[in-house]
# Entry
Amino acid sequence: MSGTAASEAIRLERLVPAWRPLDLPVAPQLTDARLQLHHAAQLVAGFGASYVAPRADDGHTNMEWLGLSNALASNPADDASLRLAIRPRNLTVLALSGDDELACFTLETRTVDEAIGWVRRTVAQHGLNGDAFALPAHYTIPAHSVGEGRPFDGSRRVEFEQLDHWFTNAALVLGHVAATTPNASPVRCWPHHFDIATLIAVDATRTIGVGLEPGDQYYNEPYWYVNMHPAPDLDVERPSLDGAGRWHTREWIGAVLPASNIDPASAEAQSERFVASAMQAAFRIL
# Structure
């Protein structure tokens, strides 16, 4: 490996660390931690909504996984390098400038309103209008008591650390997809459904979404997915899937690999096989 290639490999490792171990039996127990993190991430989405020029696809509110910080980070403010991030493993909000951590606020035992106050004071210290900060109001997310004024509870550390691992692994797998697939978008986490994904433009009207959902009303556990737009008919011929994946057909059609179907001994390879197989199937269907 040349010196340039070695340097690039080190840089990528810092940005997206290697695969993290998954405690798969814990996966169905992540619901409370996932909901708290989803609400915490609205602070980051709110930064984008408040300080980044609006985009038609709502992309100004999305987030990227920063491997160096182990955090979901907003887009930078239009008028500054400042951005906000949330670190899942210890429920900490970060103010960042590039790779530099400027300030942090641990949500443990604190409320959303207290966090909003901290964000407003912090961004004001770095040249933005603190009074302009607000949480997104144009969509709703699943309810949790922290959204009603109760303090955050990050005491179940294993669950938050596992969410950290799921997002790290998703950034790794999806980053490879985005880097090797023509017309694939950058990998982003969307604050509405809290999935992290890349979107592949097949042509002007057809797309394939490849991502990881940390859990929702369909699966009470993290799951990989590949879906298509426009959605295929329910009776369309669906190819078999590798990696123990299956087809989801309730309310939407797509290939899924829930955590409960993953073999702990080969989780990384199985996840990659599923994604590759499901993408191939989606291209065939479209």
